[in-house]
Amino acid sequence: MEGSQALRGKTTEDRRLLDLLDPVAEAAGYEIVRLRLMGGDRARRLQIMAERDDGTMLVEDCAALARALNPVLDAADPVAGDYTLEVSSPGIDRPLTRLKDFDTFEGFEARLEIDRLAEGRKRFKGELAGTDGDLIAINLEGEAETALLPFEWLVEAKLVITDALLERGAAQRAARLDVPGEFDDAGPAPPETPRPKQHKHVPKPPKGPKTQPARRPGKTDRLEDQKD
After folding, report:
1. Distance from C-alpha of 102 to C-alpha of 147, rounded to nearest angstrom
2. 168: left (phi over 0), alpha (psi -120 to 50) or beta
3. Phi-psi label, residue 63: left if phi above 0, alpha if psi -120 to 50, beta otherwise
4. pLDDT tens digits, 47-91
5. Among 201, 194, 172, which Cα is nearest to 184's?
6. In this structure, which CATH number among 2.30.30.180, 3.40.630.30, 3.40.50.300, 1.20.1070.10 belongs to the domain 99-162+205-222?
7. Pair type for strands 220-222 and 31-38
8. How far apart are the first and last CA of the chain?
């Protein structure tokens, strides 16, 4: 899968669960967009956002994926203590966790956070401009050129709700409702009963010595890692 473990799973435990559950989801026809194991030792929630290859995720899909994951979770028993499994679609202001997401949502506004300082900051906001190899292109607010950020630097990326994004979502829902037997997205499937334990490169160059940034002809400036 073309995704960043740092974006899809926040903790080491999340990433171990992704390693376990990714093949199961893919065999069932879904991709896990993001996984989070929430809570402390009690009443934990295993939250999974997923979708089909075409970007859809209906209520019945959430239930089907939960049914596919349950036997593996029962057999492997990877989570200590009781927990509730929740499966949902990514939603409108969805997280962007795979390289292909930045092409799919080109032209829409997003907020990005990276794991290091670039031009004195880690957070950026602007209009997505697709990808260039393993670089994320984004038109930053107030800047004339398109910046390029390495995908591997990202620790958080999320769409911003705008009128254009809402219109896109409404058009997709209307198209699905025109197909007999199709139903609209409705968030997560009802959570299961708690599972008992026994079941079980922005940068423009920094100040100092200058390096020549990579550019797209006429408009792109690759941001360089800011050294201490």
Report:
1. 14
2. alpha
3. alpha
4. 999 999 999 999 999 999 999 999 999 999 999 888 999 999 999
5. 172
6. 2.30.30.180
7. unpaired
8. 34
